[in-house]
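COMPLEX REQUEST
Ligand: NAP
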Amino acid sequence: MRGVPERSLWAAPADVNGGTQWHPERHWVPLFTEGEGAAGTPERRRVPPSGERERSPYAVPTVQLVEEDHMPAEKRSLAGTVVAVTGASAGIGAAAARLLGEAGANVVLGARRTERLDALVEEIGADRALAVSLEVRDPEQNRAFVQAAVDRFGRIDSIVANAGIGMYGGIEDSSDDDLTRMIEVNFSGTVWSVRAAVPHFRRQGDGGDVVIVSSVAGLRGGADEAVYAGTKFAQVGLAGSLDRELREDGIRVSAICPAGVETEFAIGAGRTEGDPALAAYLRPEDVAFQIVTALEQPRRLRTTLWAQWSMGQGS
Ligand SMILES: NC(=O)c1ccc[n+]([C@@H]2O[C@H](COP(=O)([O-])OP(=O)(O)OC[C@H]3O[C@@H](n4cnc5c(N)ncnc54)[C@H](OP(=O)(O)O)[C@@H]3O)[C@@H](O)[C@H]2O)c1
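STATUS: Structure written out below.
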């Protein structure tokens, strides 16, 4: 805009979800931007609510307008950045891709079910999203996945290592093959994704973000998930060590540790579709919000470990 600098007005909701509940994502909601119109006169434009926000259970009533000067925290814009997400065909990964797209990022989506990825690309917009077939257990496919991001968008800013599987039961209950697959997808797959992205971050020379989607099971495993929890502990350990290795290159490493999330995860392997207990779980959008929040921190700071529960879940 010419002359008058662009600024925003924000709504501070006093009453969220019909009560006095506070929700960090919805605490401040942009309502208008103000700038200079074509005729040189001040102009205020309404920020259209996104489809996601309209569907949100946290739909926010407008109560009070305050100026952006009052915003307490600095926020990094994701607009134009390039974020690659593994396991983007379902659950947390798909929700993260949508939210990143809404935040203006270019997203590169990896998973085996490419028909789902193609549908997501159409939803986000083919100009800003790319689908790539990816088996995370294969190091070469991870390198090709990251290279596809660089070829298409010119660079890569962030990798979200999210692909994972789970099965519940005692140490004797799963087959050797199933446990091998879980260990390889959850841990080896994370290693291969990170190893594919880091050389690009280093070559670009302006930092990068590694986000690893682990679990609260990676902080304290339950009695019916020992091997799964082991893979998630391994991711947390990997993230902590990587943070110490990569910080000097300006590369941030964040481990996201959600409690149970209502997705397709472990359905038929310890969870049952439609189980009413799942309604109290986190939603994939909650974890997506955490991922976006980690990336939106200004690059001068880092938060290495995020644990997240719904209010209906005990810790
Ligand atoms: N749901 C929970 O309760 C929960 C809680 C804490 C942490 N987590 C973690 O969150 C992450 C995402 O889980 P979710 O709940 O979103 O599960 P989900 O809905 O089942 O999605 C899993 C994703 O991983 C991908 N994937 C699985 N195996 C793969 C492979 N071999 N190669 C490439 N991609 C593969 C799947 O894609 P394709 O099948 O198309 O390849 C899918 O996109 C996992 O790491 C999980 O451990 C989940």
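REMARKS: Residues 86-93, 111-113, 134-137, 162-166, 185, 213, 215, 258, 260-261, 263-265, 284 surround NAP (CB under 6 Å). The first helix runs from residue 51 to 55.
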